[in-house]
Amino acid sequence: MRILDIQVGEVRIPLERPFKTALRTVENVEDIIVRVVTDEGVEGYGEAPPTAVITGDTKGSITTAIMDFIRPALIGMEIDNLDGIFKKLNGCILKNTSAKAAVDMAIYDIFAKQYNAPLYKLLGGARTEIETDLTISVNDIPQMVADSLDAVSKGYRILKIKVGKEGLKDVERIAAIREAVGADIKLRVDANQGWNAKQSVQIIRAMENKGLDIDLVEQPVPAHDFEGMKFVTSRVATPILADESVFSAEDAIHLIQERAADLINIKLMKTGGIYNALKICSIAELYGVECMIGCMLESKMAVSAGAHFAAAKSIITRADLDGPSLCKIDPYEGGPIYRENMIYMTDAPGIGITRVPCRFEN
Description:
With 362 residues, the chain is α/β, with parallel strands linked by helices. It has 13 helices and 16 strands.
């Protein structure tokens, strides 16, 4: 089975409410969808969100990378030659990780369909269901408390609280949410690079002193500040999760060997897809470092690929796969089953998506 064509389209899905972090505010998912077509008529799908403030990718750059560089490099290749495909995919253009991730997941989709098996089983088959957190956008305290209580009423037991804009004011946010939701709900704090190293230690220690029982703090300092991450990790008791600091296997090795973080957040849009994410998993397993599977502002298409990856590997102990829950509608058919905080894998071949709501161009 050979790659016959690679096509792109766009999807636009409104969010239930604006998604706000220390870096941006977004009201709609507006992503590039990829379709890979084979000479035997089997199709695979992938998705790339334009997250310029994190990956540097825009809709224009994603489309250009796929159509002008990736497509000519891969057409004609045998699907079974995964190693050769992914070496070409990663070597035909530097960076452009979201574009690579979209094509990567479409290739894996076809590969698993070829063997009539769900992808997660071919990658490892560690579990059949995943519990995800739900993101609470950064807003004024009453709104964040209300959003948190709404999430808990729907069955969510883990909340990921966005902070990073107002320093010590963030402690008040977390304290108010903890008081409102009670002690049984896990709280994760995501600063999205919003603090410096000394400020991070001050804020995290303040949360510890208040007994807020935080599950983890995600990326407190700027992505490039590995020394700052190490400074924070070594001075607080709360686990520190590296997100934007880890794009590659090399980044993971550096952080782990320097003890600059306790946990690693793997996102397919940062790694360039499943192929490279598997390398980070292997490194994490070697060092005994637990991982989270995360997502950008992705729709069900890309999140489903992330769910298959998470279901495959036991070293992935946490999940932040709430993209479909943030969307107002689900225009897709097939894929894993999303029921509020739980994601259930199915036996559908590949990633499982059977209908994609866009028109493709080549």
